[in-house]
Amino acid sequence: MTGWDDEPLFGPESDDPVTARPSRPSGEPWPILVVDDDPQVHAMTAVLLRDFDFDGRPFEVVGALSAAEAKAVLAERPDLPVALLDVVMETEDAGLRLVRHIRDELGNRRMRIILRTGQPGQAPERDVIVGYDINDYKAKSELTAQRLFTTLVSALRAWRDIVTIERNRQGLERILSASASLFETRSMRAFVERLVEQLSRVVDAGSDPAILACRRMERGDGRAQTALVAALGRHAPKIGLPVAEALPPALAEAVEDGFRFQRNLYDDGFCVLVFRTREHGVTVLTLERTEPYTPDEHRLLELFCNRVAIGFDNVCLYEELITLNRSLEQRVEERTTELAANQRALILAKDRVERALERELSARNNQRQFLGMVSHEFRTPLAIIDSAAQLLAMRAEEVEPEMLERLSVIRGSVLRLTGLIDAHLTDERLESNALVLERALVDLPGLIRDATAPFRVAYPGREFRLELDEAPRRAELDAHLVGLVLANLLNNAVKYSPPDCPIRLRAIADGPMAIIEVTDQGRGVPEVEIPRLFDRFFRGSGADGVPGTGIGLHTVQQIVLLHGGAVAVDSVVGQGSTFRVVLPL
């Protein structure tokens, strides 16, 4: 069968409704501009993208039904990352003109443009790729849900990389410009003052910037204190005052931490930058603003620090190396201890797993013995009950016809119990890889009739329609196992469809393959449950109130696969199901 993700998104129009899958909550969506004059394209794209997300963010479709409408959208939202454009809209080249507008008139080189056309002959791919600055070209007939998702993810990654490169390029230009003027200064005081001025150009300092520089200064009594040596903004009048008096407690403590720990610190409302110089010791700068600093700004500030603080003291680097070495030695020791503990834990876990495996093997052996005992002990009584019910039915036809219905129930129960035993035994042999095919040439129509006969007896009021005129006369297969496949499919059809609805069995030849279909008019299977329908022990939502174990269809699939065939299902809720078995002849 063809997977849903492999189906073309835009094929011939159909009256069948599209069933939307439930959306999942996520972060801020990725806006995708869809420009197409067909509203169904917008609806289908929105429905399909609801099932996908990228980097924890879903997709949002921003629609435009014409190139003119798309221009209005782009005027309001120039930051849209990806556009899916149709070529033929209000004019035959409306999409291509829109590409020129985006690239040439708007100067937008970041947006990733994907042409998606239903008439590729009017805009040949080679000519469009060469003549227009687009990033991909897709025909609607070849675009599946998975390919759409892959195309969008590739485009979003490219857009994100371009934006990051531009942002970093602009930051680097500001850093180079700022650091070049800094290197022209000669005195430490002038350097610090110029440094304060240039920092506001490296990152956006906000509407009310407050930047200051602090250094350790000696007081008159010979003790050192931290004081402001340069400032911009509201702290400018406080130059020369101690940090504890001039700044709020939280900011003053962060400055002291900068001197104490000699590393950059980032908080929601400010950041602390530490400059270590060879001749003038340590200088700490703080930048305050209401907006938090982004990771990109962190990197720019770090790069700026590295650029302007090229005179770090070699002794400090050596001390850092010694500290790092000690930390590494400590980590090696901790890691060694941890590995020893993990090794002991692995040994204990290995022992537990071995014991659990022994218990599981013992349980499986007991299960096989139990199933063998059940099969041996139950089959003879069940055969006797079935024979007695047949004799009673023959007599009841003449003497007491009202007993026929009860006897039919008895025989149906015997059939179901016998089938349940066969299903469990076959499932156990399948799971233990002990099932071996015994292929032989069999009369396929006869095999289908034999498999249907017990159901006709057990359900006399049920109509079973056999369409075997086109069936192959001979097939090389395991008759017992294929009979079990048919019994499971017929049993499901009986259980999940009304008594007055017929069950159809159809067999045809298709080259070297035989196709057997079992069709009912029952409850049907929801589309979301079909991929799990053949899982072991799975029972769908429509199985409420119907007895069963959930291994029948799993056994069907495994037997068919052993024959080198395939099994599939077409189902509509409320209308019924068709199970299709394909077997090699």
CATH superfamily of the domain at 436-584: Histidine kinase-like ATPase, C-terminal domain
Q: What do the pLDDT scores average to?
A: 77
Fold-level CATH name of the domain at 436-584: Heat Shock Protein 90
Number of helices: 14
Report how far the terminal alpha carbons are from each other: 20 Å
Largest sheet: 6 strands, mixed
Task: Identify the quaternary structure here.
Answer: single chain
Give the helix/strand class: alpha/beta
Could you estimate the helical fraction of the residues in percent? 40-55%
| Sheet with the most strands: spatial strand order | 2-3-1-4-5-6
Tell me, briefly, the overall form. elongated
Write the CATH architecture name of the domain at 436-584.
Answer: 2-Layer Sandwich
Beta-strand percentage range: 15-25%
User: What is the rounded Rg?
Assistant: 39 Å
Total strands: the figure is: 18
Uncertain segments are 12-23, 311-319
CATH class of the domain at 436-584: Alpha Beta
Domain Histidine kinase: 373-585
EC number: 2.7.13.3
Keywords: Kinase, Phosphoprotein, Transferase, Two-component regulatory system
GO molecular function, one term: phosphorelay sensor kinase activity
